Amino acid sequence: MGNAKLYKGSLSTIILKLLNEHEKMYGYEITQKVKEITKGELKITEGALYPSLHKLEAEGLLEVEVLKVDNRLRKYYKLTEQGTQETVNKLEELERYIKTMRALVNPEFRFD
Amino acid sequence: MGNAKLYKGSLSTIILKLLNEHEKMYGYEITQKVKEITKGELKITEGALYPSLHKLEAEGLLEVEVLKVDNRLRKYYKLTEQGTQETVNKLEELERYIKTMRALVNPEFRFD
DNA sequence: CAAATATACATAAATAAGTTATGCATGTAA
DNA sequence: TTACATGCATAACTTATTTATGTATATTTG
């Protein structure tokens, strides 16, 4: 991903959340959506995206439907039930991560 | 580190920030301080910590002073001037990361 | 009309940052 | 005397990326 090393580990969270919001998306669409939402801050590379999608599918979190649109292939992904559950977990993990990092880095946020 | 994969990439930020706050710390002390501040949420493993400290030193961000306390060795690390500057950068990166992730994951936080 | 750019997928080699396991040494508590 | 805490270190392995390619079609641009 474009810039900071911090994004390492957050790609699957991003994918799951976008699919949670959009019901059905294909790979290229995901890269564009992320670029748009983040105003170019984050650019997902294909070398990261496609293996990640395949892994999520293999884990049973996503299911695929291949369509031909304008004579081009598109593989649409959507959340399985398990995927929807895992999305909740990943989002909780992200919030916990952010809280923990704030506590570490921002002394006035420290837990009581 | 203990739990989520999200912490990957944030160790150097944590180390630099703690040294920014404490002037001078040794490795074991850092692991304990992190455990304390995060209430056990985050446990830094030695296999991650020591290589990271060595790398930061090699990059000129930290300098070392070896002391013998209670007949045991301690390697105290402190920020160099460059290290202080890099701390600012890392903290900015962290804030930018958090903002970007919030925009992605929390639609009501999306940028205008 | 040719060339570049956008759309759409994919994979392989290399890199980075961790985990897990292990090793050494001293001191203290059970 | 055995376990646990303090204190450092490294090597082998794993995982998630980056970088570099490859294929193919569609559209824009000079």
TrEMBL record, chains A, B:
Pfam families in the record: PadR
Bilayer-spanning residue ranges: none
UniProt cross-references to InterPro entries, sorted A to Z: Metal_resp_DNA-bind_regulator (IPR052509), Tscrpt_reg_PadR_N (IPR005149), WH-like_DNA-bd_sf (IPR036388), WH_DNA-bd_sf (IPR036390)
KW DNA-binding (keyword) present: yes
Residue ranges of every copy of the Transcription regulator PadR N-terminal domain listed in the record: 15-86
One MF term in the entry's GO annotations: DNA binding
UniProt KW keywords: DNA-binding
The protein's name: DNA-binding PadR family transcriptional regulator
